[in-house]
Amino acid sequence: MLKIKPILSNKVGYRLRLANGQGWHIIATEGVQSWVEKLASIMELEPGNGKGYPRLIFIQNKKGKKTQQEPIVGLDPKIREDFPKSGWEARESHAIRIWSHHGTPDIFCEIGYGEGYARDIFEMLLAIYPIFERAQNWGALPLHAALLERNGIGVLLVASSDTGKTTCCSRLRSPWRPLCDDETLIVQNHQKRYLAHPFPTWSDYIFKRSNRTWNIEYHLPLSAIFFLEQSETDEVLAIGQGEAAVHINHSARQVCCRRLYYLGLQETKSMRTKLFENACEFAKVIPAFKLRVSLKGRFWEKIEAVLP
Fold first, then answer.
1. For residues 283 and 82, what is the distance between their CA atoms, to the nearest angstrom?
2. What angle do CA 214, 219, 220 make, to 5 degrees?
3. C-beta of residue 59 within 8 angstroms of C-beta of residue 107
4. Same domain, 171 and 300
5. Are 202 and 76 members of one domain?
6. Residue 132 lies in a domain
7. What is the pLDDT of residue 2?
8. I need a surface site. Which of 6, 25, 46, 191 has the fewest CB within 10 A?
9. Are residues 275 and 244 in the same domain?
10. Residue 5 located in a structural domain
11. Residues 271/136, Cβ–Cβ less than 8 Å
12. Rounded to an integer, what distance in angstroms lies between the CA atom of residue 108 and that of residue 72?
């Protein structure tokens, strides 16, 4: 049986609030407090009870064991009354297990099947999937993209891995600044305006032992999206909505494919359909361009030339 003595207090609870009004109360139970504190530190989350938001509750299994017990089995009886007694469904991976129930918006995330620094970071990468999944149902898009800021306005730089996003971010000059270089979450507020949140570069933690943090609650309105291509000269070319939607959908699936093995066949199909629908809506609103970048040019000036 899982031995869980939950600590549901502000000391181990963190609030995550997105620009579209969604949010989470992130909670640690006994045995995973330091892990959750590390996750909150990377994402610059402040302690808080997240009142009114669904709970993302982290629990620890016995080392190396997987069971099919309901996630509330080891909870204190008084706390257990807050949750459905049975009917929880698990999404499996080799690193974590995510428990959900149709009768509650709360999620349990079971960690602790392995040990080590790299395993902890990999678990964190996977554990934020519920945040992306819920946001997608509200029109959001998690993109494999760098988020650049200029005078309070955001620009997306989209490319596959190892094709120049990070290098471009390092070459920017003031008043430009990079907020992230790997994952960005795009949400819609109540006025249907698109806003962007920077998310961590998890690979920097795994391979470079980075100590950088990202303020994922910080957000800014989007002005344009650029699809990066390496070139001999710097150039910006406008592209149509159809082509943009295809590229945007591909970028979103790059982020989500790491988490697809949680899902069954029907869930995977539904998720891909929703991503494509969101990509099409996004492409109708946000201007899209190809950005051809040379090794030593001032590509950001090409971007500035086409911004409103």
1. 42
2. 130
3. no
4. yes
5. no
6. no
7. 37
8. 191
9. yes
10. no
11. yes
12. 9
Orientation angle between helical segments 33-42 and 117-127, nearest 10 degrees: 70
Least confident of 26-40, 204-218, 253-267: 253-267
By C-alpha distance, which of 127, 137, 3, 129 is closest to 74?
3
Task: Write the DSSP symbol of residue 216.
Answer: T
**Residue 7 forms beta bridges with which residues?**
none
> Does residue 174 share a domain with residue 110?
no
Any domain includes 103:
yes
Q: Are residues 277 and 299 in the same domain?
A: yes
Read off the pLDDT of residues 14-40 as tens digits, 9 standing for 90 and up. Answer: 999 999 999 999 999 888 999 999 999
- Is 59 domain-assigned? yes
Domain boundary among 66, 93, 127: 127
Mean pLDDT (the chain, rounded): 88
Q: Which two tokens stand for residue 253?
A: 């699936």
If one counts the domains in the chain, the total is 2
34 lies in which domain range? 13-127
Of the candidates 84, 90, 32, 33, which has an alpha carbon nearest to the alpha carbon of residue 60? 32
Domain limit, last residue, from 73, 93, 127: 127
Query: Cα separations (Å) of 186 from 16, 20, 148, 189?
Result: 15, 10, 13, 10
Helix axes 241-256, 265-285, angle to 10 degrees: 140
Alpha-carbon distance of 180 to 197, in angstroms, equals 9
Q: How large is the average pLDDT for residues 46-59? A: 89
Identity of the amino acid at 277:
E
With a cut of 90, say whether residue 86 has pLDDT above it: no
- Which of the residue ranges 68-82, 109-123, 131-145, 256-270 has the most confident prediction, judged by mean pLDDT? 131-145
- 214 shares a domain with 118: no
- pLDDT at residue 101, rounded to an integer: 93
CB 277 within 8 A of CB 245: no
Q: How confident is the model at residue 3 (pLDDT cuts 50, 70, 90)?
A: very low
Answer whether 200's CB lies under 8 Å from 43's CB: yes
Note the pLDDT tens digit of each residue in 152-197: 999 999 987 667 889 999 999 999 999 999 999 999 998 999 999 9
